[in-house]
Amino acid sequence: MKIGFIGLGNMGEGMSSNILKKHDDKVFVYDLLKEKVELMAEKGAVPCHSASEVAENADIIITMLPRSEHVKSIYDEILPKVGVGKICVDMSTIDPGVSMEIAERVKETGAKFADCPVLKSKLMAIAGKLGIYAGCDEETFKILEPILYYMGENVMRIGENGAGITMKICQNALTHEIQNAVNETLTLANICGIETEQFIKAISIGGAQNYYLESKADALINNDFTCQFPVIYAEKDLSICKRLSESHNFPMPGIDVSLKALKKTIDMGYGLEDNCACILAVRDGFV
After folding, report:
1. Cα dihedral 276/62/17/218 (nearest 10)
2. Angle between helices 163-191 and 196-203 (to 10 degrees)
3. Which residues are CB-contacts of 244 (< 8 A; sequence separation ≥ 6)?
4. Where would I find the beta strands (DSSP E) of 91-199?
5. What predicted TM-score, i.e. pTM, was given to this entire model?
6. Residues 40, 96: contact at Cβ < 8 Å?
7. DSSP SS3 for 169
8. Contact of 117 with 131, CB cutoff 8 Å
9. Angstrom distance (rounded) from CA 108 to CA 101
């Protein structure tokens, strides 16, 4: 079964590299940046000059792109090459409504579609230890599951098309609400004379312990905002959640607060730093 991978960026490079290491058939790759394609070709991938060339040659076509508009544009290009016997898998984090629109267009060709967004960071993508949510029918999931495990260590089918991306949006929203709570309480503790390292240790033995603080402990202690997942992408994901909640007439004030911190961080010039840099906006009082 031949695999195609479109989008070799922040997460896609590590994800496609793991497919190459573990898959026993051809892997076709494409990215707008020629050097990204050349790098994967050195690892054994078949380089392609366009997304449609990937779709023409692959049985399973994976897309991993930054935003809804990028995914829509790629599917506009590849749909003429998609049909019965092929499976399209979008692993991007995009608006659920856009994902559902693409799913319907793919299924009209006779192909199958799955939304399979990923969790965690660039380092986890490189290590093949991502979390992955799947939105597709059970038959399609059985085909995709071993391939998804090339890239992740935890793979869950959430439900039909749209369920995977919706769960990812909710997961990201919760993560950043936790992040903002960590930033506010940590900053208050610092103001009151408690050092960051002591704060982290104290939280670890109480009911407020959480993965975000544990995974970002060194970064927060050292003010090291080396990028694993940039602020601009975090702001994009939370904006998707805000639009989703508004479409259901369900206000989420916690999202508004978290978004305010992320937008302020971008305004401060830290948009391409790791998303934990938003503590700088909290320290600055959101002003």
Report:
1. 10
2. 130
3. 95, 96, 166, 169
4. 112-115, 118-119, 130-135, 152-159
5. 0.93
6. no
7. helix
8. no
9. 11
Could you give the CA distance from residue 161 to residue 140 in angstroms, rounded to a whole number?
11
Q: What angle do CA 128, 51, 125 make, to 5 degrees?
A: 10
Our measurement of the distance from residue 97's CA atom to the centroid of its chain's CA atoms, rounded to an integer in Å, reads: 17
For residue 112, give every residue at least 6 positions away whose Cβ sits within 8 Å of its Cβ, in sequence order, or none.
Answer: 86, 87, 88, 106, 136, 137, 140
Give me the tens of pLDDT residue by residue for the chain, a chain 287 residues long: 999 999 999 899 999 999 999 999 999 999 999 999 999 999 999 999 999 999 999 999 999 999 999 999 999 999 999 999 999 999 999 999 999 999 999 999 999 999 999 998 889 999 999 999 999 999 999 999 999 999 999 999 999 999 999 999 999 999 999 999 999 999 999 999 999 999 999 999 999 999 999 999 999 999 999 998 899 999 999 999 999 999 999 999 999 999 999 999 999 999 999 999 999 999 998 54
Helix, strand, coil percent content, the chain, rounded in steps of 5: 55, 15, 30
Single out the residue of 135, 118, 114 nearest to residue 127, CA to CA: 118
For 106, list phi and psi in degrees, rounded to 5.
Answer: -65, -45
Q: Residue 67: what are its φ and ψ, rounded to 5°?
A: -140, 165
The interaxial angle of helices 231-247 and 253-267, nearest 10 deg, is: 150
Question: What is the C-alpha separation between 144 and 142, in angstroms, rounded?
Answer: 6
Which residues participate in catalysis according to the annotation?
168
92: number of CA atoms within 13 Å, CB side? 31
Q: What is d(CA 213, CA 159) in angstroms, rounded to the nearest whole number?
A: 30
